[in-house]
Please model this.
Amino acid sequence: MTLRFVPTPLDAPIPAPAPRAGAFDPALAGAFVASSARESALARLAQPGALAVTSGQQPGLFTGPLYTVHKALSTAALARLLEQRWGRPVVPVFWLAGDDHDFNEASHTSWLSADGAVVSAALPPRPAEAPLTPMYREPLGPGVAPALEALAADLPASEFRDGVLDWLRRHYRPDTTVAAAFAGAIAELLAPAGIACFDSTHPAVKRAAAVHVLKALELASELDQDLDRRAEELGASARTSGIAVGDGAALVMLEAALGRDRLVLDGSAFVTRRSRERFDLAALRRIAEEEPTRLSPNVLLRPVIESALLPTVAYLGGPGELRYLVLTPPLYERLGVPRQLPLPRWSGVLLERRVERVLEKFNAGLDDLLAPAGALEARLIRSQLPTEATQTLGTLRAAIESGYEGLGRVATDIDPTLARPVQSARQQALSGTQDVEKKLVQHLKRRQETELTQIARARTAVLPGNKPQERVLTVAPFLARYGPDLVPDLTAEIERWYAAALEGAPHTS
Model:
């Protein structure tokens, strides 16, 4: 495969997870999305002592950005290592967060066109006044067809192209929901890696989670205080994690008149933050019993629910998730749930051969492309300056420095007030040489337009829109170019990365 995987360097080794008690409840089997990996994963989870490694993500159009795939494949890689070391089943599970209501994030995707530009497609926007419907209830609608046509127009011609389009068309249909389309597509994509996808909005999951959600509501005041104290202990980093705590908000969301809404303590009851509907605990208990699908955890409570329902030893998250997950230990303690270890997912760049050829041509490295634009280009242009021009400019600057140094001493001896005018004249003379060099470089830029375009395209491939590749580009064009081997090859690379990064992982349980 003419594709290289370049990981983001870690600051320190990763602590190893430890085995835990717990078992998988077979009543939750229906929540696993149909795929070729489903039955095997369920059989392994049913074995005594079986454990899980998890990650998760909210729905995305055409499976969303690359980091979704990176997160999921990280579970397969780490689970395989832990299973080998512990001698017991460890199953990779990907938690599908269909409760999420962020339509703007879920409804768009991006890729590179044939000329190397970033192209985006999106579903029609949701009206500003519309309720914040969770993605498991939000229809894809007819707008998915032109989005898929736009992607198809930019997919490279290859033996894999039609298969990739068939895969997306099987799942991204107007008559399904945003979450269901994502669930089916990602489950099929991940199945060769043995990853089982878990639908957190399935009625069986909602019923099982309801007891923990209600306990979180009953202890809402105590949990809010716990989180506030924890944030105070951790200092500024916790306060800037993007998650507000200590403001009286519960850790539970309720589908109400304006869609999915945060419950906020109001005396002995709760009100929804946007619609201002009031619910006492008795009413919320009735909802949990009769309509449990209306209740869902927020981002801090969700990993606690996950660990209560699955025998998970580690959750693999991105940098933003890990920043706020450090707040959560008091939640596990007060709710009586074992805590899985939050660990970093694999992060990195898919470096294509066409980009590497550009780097080789200009004697550059990936870091040069990831650095702010301009430095590599300036180096290229300056390397094209004739040797005579470079030497002459250097000689001229040295002569100016030397000549004005002597002139400055003489002028100061005559009158100390002359030092400043002489220094100013020196700066003007040096500035003149810089102006000449700039004009030479400008003319060279026009002559080197092709090379500069090559660098710009290479930079866009790894830093599209000046953002990390994994946060912008979707996986479909890579699959169309490199085929289904992309999944096992990247999984093997991630497994090597975890094997090198783990510190002190025990080989037996």
In short: The chain has a mean pLDDT of 91. The two ends are 37 Å apart (CA to CA). The first strand starts at residue 3 and ends at 7.
